[in-house]
Amino acid sequence: MADVIRETDLSEPGVPGVSWAAVAAGAVASLALTLLLLSFGAGLGFAIVSPWGNSGVSATTFEIGTGLFFVVMAMISSSLGGYLAGRLRTKWTGLRSAEVLFRDSAHGFLAWAFASVLGAILLASPASSLIGGTLSGATQAAANSAQSSPMDGYVDTLLRSDNPSAQTQQNPSDTRAEMVRLFTSSFRTGNEMNSGDRTYVAKVVAARTGLSQQDAEKRVNDVAAQVKTDMDKARKAAMQIAIWLTLSLFIGAFCAALAATEGGGLRDGTWSKHPFRTAPINR
Q1: Is residue 99 within 8 Å of 12, Cβ to Cβ?
Q2: Residue 274 needs a FRET pair 20 to 30 A away by CA distance; which of 21, 131, 179, 211 works?
Q3: Are 151 and 186 in contact (CB under 8 A)?
Q4: Nearest to 86 by CA among 273, 257, 255, 251
Q5: Sign of the CA dihedral running 70, 73, 77, 83
């Protein structure tokens, strides 16, 4: 009777456990596809976003749409990279099937990790331009008051005159520039306006618009509350996008590892014997 060869008696092969060439090839392919999909996403309009009302895509639409796009992009690009890493690696002989499965999964994970590191370096600018729109209006103001700024809309609301005959004691452009700078410095970090600034702004509004001091203070409070609300929405949208991006990375790692086992199984001709497809037959 022929001796039965147990899996524990199998000798380790002499080839390296990691095919770095296959890992690099899968990572480069995944990175290239990611760049292609990022460009496609920008073409669909994901980069045209603004947290300010009536300007570009709304923050909520951007949050959900771009989050789902990141997940789908990670699934497609990571699966391609993992599949190539598994399909192009060196064939191992004399290994247990469980060990081959682990190595294939590791190849897919390494390809995903390599692509992620390269992407963080090479694709930092395209990615930041795609996801940075949610905070661009909330965290930046015009350095030059003559340039257009998101704060201009709020200052327009503040200085809108209910009495056309009201005359200002200052140059209107100087007044607007001062208000823009004051609002920007007060709300850049999400803080409330201090009482001194709020009183001063109310006086300027009253002098500019002809409103009573009480009505001017109410207008200042209403506009300040609107500014804070819009900026809070922008920050929350950016936080949600970061969560979506993290989720897409986890899903990408899983897809890369799974696709590598598929590619490795096709490489070795054992695809039909994959543990995930071998179901026990009950008799």
Answers
A1: no
A2: 21
A3: no
A4: 257
A5: positive
pTM (two decimals):
0.63
- Among 47, 61, 53, residue whose Cα is nearest residue 227: 53
**How many domains does the chain divide into?**
2
User: Domain of 263?
Assistant: 18-137+238-273
Query: Residue length, the chain?
Result: 283
Residue 256 sits in the same domain as residue 186: no
Task: Give me the residue label for tokens 């709304």.
Answer: 58
The conformation of residue 7, written as its DSSP 8-state character, comes to G
**Cβ 220 vs Cβ 158: under 8 Å:** yes
- DSSP symbol at 248: H
Q: Would you state the structure tokens that stand for residue 99, as one six-digit string?
A: 């060990």
Q: Which two tokens stand for residue 193?
A: 């306006």
Residue 268 dihedral angles phi and psi, to the nearest 5°: -90, -5
Domain identity same for 40 and 130: yes
DSSP letter, residue 278: -
Q: What is the pLDDT of residues 202-236, one digit of tens each?
A: 888 888 887 888 888 899 888 888 888 888 877 88
Question: Rounded distance, CA 89 to CA 262, Å?
Answer: 12
Q: Of 232, 200, 231, nearest to 216 (Cα)?
A: 200
The Cα–Cα gap between 13 and 37 comes to 39
For residue 194, is it within any domain? Answer: yes
> Is the domain of 27 the same as that of 63?
yes
Tens digits of per-residue pLDDT, 9-25?
A: 545 556 677 889 999 99
